[in-house]
């Protein structure tokens, strides 16, 4: 096998997903993944800390992408307009090209409690990045947290819905649909003062 063969991370990811589905996450070993990909165990550990991280490949880059997308918006734009303008292109950039992998990942994670916990940790990291992004834009902590929760809710709902739709539907269109539904719900809110 070639020592520096290109596409190693992608090959390892595809091999791992196939084995996780075939024999289960817990039953799959790193040497099996490496062998399936035609690579060495050492190569595996150059790309991933452990086999769980295969399922979350690329997630560590997401906080920097959050900052990049937030920086594209003028500093005086409030949180909700920022979410309305940036969430769909953000989702498309980060997840839009990985539909097949996300579908497999969803199936695998749903069968393992430890993976569900890791997914929640990754989601908490993303939420924290969004909160920090809003706070760097001089949004107070409460508003930043609520805005991050809104962004996470819309993104999670859109991703779940997108994975059930026809492949030709772009993720950005589903995000726009979910945001429109949210706007409709929000318009029905009536805030009354407490006596």
Descriptive labels:
single chain; 195 residues; mainly alpha; Arc Repressor Mutant, subunit A; Tetracycline Repressor, domain 2; 10 helices; 0% strand; transcription cis-regulatory region binding; DNA-bd_HTH_TetR-type_CS; transcription; Transcriptional regulator, TetR family
At a glance:
The protein is mainly α. Helices cover 70% and strands 0% of the residues.
**Number of distinct helices:** 10
Q: How many E-type strands?
A: 0
Biggest sheet details: none
Into how many domains do the coordinates divide?
Answer: 2
The CATH architecture designation of the largest domain is Orthogonal Bundle
Q: Assign the CATH superfamily of the largest domain.
A: Tetracycline Repressor, domain 2
- What shape does the CA trace take? elongated
State the name of the first-level CATH class of the largest domain.
Mainly Alpha
Low-confidence spans: pLDDT under 50, at least 5 residues?
none
Q: Considering DSSP H and I runs of 4 or more, what fraction of the residues is helical? A: 55-70%
What is the beta-strand fraction?
under 5%
pLDDT averaged over residues: 91
Measure the end-to-end span.
75 Å
Indicate the radius of gyration in whole angstroms.
19 Å
Compressed to H and E, one letter per element, the order equals HHHHHHHHHH
The CATH topology name of the largest domain reads Tetracycline Repressor, domain 2
Question: Structural class of the secondary elements?
Answer: mainly alpha
